[in-house]
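Lecture notes, part 5. Sequence design as translation. It can be helpful to think of inverse folding as translation between two languages: the language of shapes and the language of residues. The source text, in C-alpha cells, appears below.
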C-alpha cells in the first residue's frame, strides 16, 4: 500500500560497543523473563531483537539497526502494524476455537479483547519485529538468502551441504517433540468434558442417557433447566431427583472455561460441588486448600483458579 515508503528520521549511529550493550541487554531480558516470569514475561517478546539484530548487522545480514543508521524507519513501522493485525486475527480465531489458549496474564486478567487482556495486544507488534529478526539470523546460515525481494535470489549458486540438511532436519524434529511434550506437561490444563468420562454418573446411567436424548454433558445441563424437565428425566431414568440435580451441577462445573473433569476432581476434594459454591470462593483460600493435592496437579496455579471463579460468577449472574 506504500505506507511509510518515503518516511525518514534522523540517522542514528551504533558503534561496536553499542551493539555489545544491546546484545547483553537482550540476554538479561531473556533470562529475567524465564527466571522471573511473573513480572518480566513481556521481555520475551523483545529480548531476541536486542540479542540477534546486532549479530545480523555484524555478519552482513538484514538488520533493522542498519535501517535506523540510514534513517529509514519504514520497515520497523510496517512490522509493528503487521504484528498488531495478525494479533487481532489470532485472538479473533482463538476466541471461537474449540481448543484454545486461555490467558492468565498477571495483573491484567479482567478487561479482555476476545481472550486476550487488552494490554496483551501490545506484545504482538514487537513479536512481529522479533520474528523478522530471528528469520534474518537463520538466513545467515542460508548464504544470507531471505524472503524479501532483494534477498530471495541471493547466492543461488551456493547450496547447503546434505549433511547440514540432515542435521537440521533432525534438530527441528527433536525440538518439536521436546516443545510439544513440554506444552502437554506445563501448559495444557483441561480437556473436553465427555459424557463417558463423567465419573460421578454410574456407568449404566452413562449408557442410558443417550437413549433418553442426552448425548453429552452440555445437553444434560441444557435440558434440565426447568423443574418439570428434571422430574421427567429422573422418572425416565428411575433415579431420585436429588441425584439428577447433583449430576447436572457437576456437569455445569466441568464445562466452565478452562476447568474440565480432571480439575473438577480436585474441586470435589475441597468441597466445591456446584457453580454457585465456586462463585463464592476466595481464590487465595481455595488455592491454599488445593495445594495439598499438588502432586496430582503439578501445574496448579492461583491464576487458573481465579479464571474458574470468575467464570462461575458470570454463570451465576447470568442465571439471576
Amino acid at each position: 500500500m506504500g505506507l511509510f515508503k518515503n518516511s525518514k528520521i534522523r540517522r542514528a549511529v551504533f558503534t561496536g560497543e553499542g551493539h555489545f550493550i544491546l546484545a547483553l541487554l537482550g540476554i538479561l531480558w531473556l533470562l529475567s523473563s524465564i527466571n522471573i516470569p511473573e513480572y518480566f514475561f513481556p521481555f520475551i517478546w523483545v529480548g531476541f531483537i536486542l540479542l540477534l539484530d546486532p549479530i545480523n548487522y555484524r555478519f552482513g545480514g538484514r538488520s533493522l539497526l542498519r535501517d535506523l543508521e540510514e534513517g529509514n524507519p519504514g520497515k520497523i513501522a510496517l512490522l509493528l502494524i503487521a504484528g498488531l493485525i495478525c494479533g487481532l486475527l489470532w485472538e479473533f480465531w482463538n476466541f471461537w476455537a474449540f481448543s484454545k489458549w486461555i490467558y492468565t496474564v498477571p495483573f491484567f486478567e479482567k478487561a479482555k479483547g476476545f481472550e486476550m487482556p487488552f494490554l496483551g495486544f501490545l506484545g504482538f507488534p514487537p513479536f512481529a519485529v522479533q520474528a523478522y529478526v530471528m528469520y534474518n539470523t537463520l538466513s545467515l546460515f542460508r548464504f544470507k538468502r531471505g524472503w524479501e525481494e532483494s534477498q530471495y535470489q541471493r547466492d543461488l549458486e551456493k547450496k547447503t551441504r546434505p549433511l547440514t540438511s540432515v542435521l537440521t532436519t533432525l534438530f527441528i524434529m527433536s525440538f518439536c517433540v521436546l516443545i510439544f511434550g513440554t506444552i502437554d506437561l506445563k501448559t495444557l490444563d483441561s480437556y473436553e468434558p465427555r459424557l463417558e468420562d463423567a465419573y460421578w454418573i454410574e456407568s449404566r446411567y452413562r449408557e442410558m442417557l443417550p437413549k433418553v436424548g442426552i448425548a453429552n454433558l452440555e445437553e444434560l445441563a441444557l435440558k434440565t433447566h426447568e423443574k418439570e424437565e428434571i422430574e421427567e428425566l429422573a422418572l425416565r431414568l428411575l433415579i431420585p431427583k436429588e441425584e439428577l440435580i447433583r449430576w447436572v451441577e457437576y456437569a455445569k462445573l466441568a464445562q466452565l472455561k478452562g476447568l474440565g473433569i480432571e480439575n473438577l476432581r480436585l474441586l470435589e476434594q475441597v468441597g466445591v460441588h456446584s457453580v454457585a459454591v465456586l462463585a463464592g470462593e476466595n481464590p487465595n483460600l481455595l488455592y491454599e486448600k488445593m495445594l495439598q493435592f499438588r502432586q496430582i496437579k503439578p501445574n496448579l496455579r492461583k491464576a487458573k483458579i481465579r479464571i474458574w471463579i470468575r467464570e462461575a460468577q458470570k454463570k451465576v449472574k447470568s442465571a439471576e
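The translated text above is only one of many valid answers, since several sequences can fold into similar shapes. The chain has three domains: 16-157, 161-188, 195-319.
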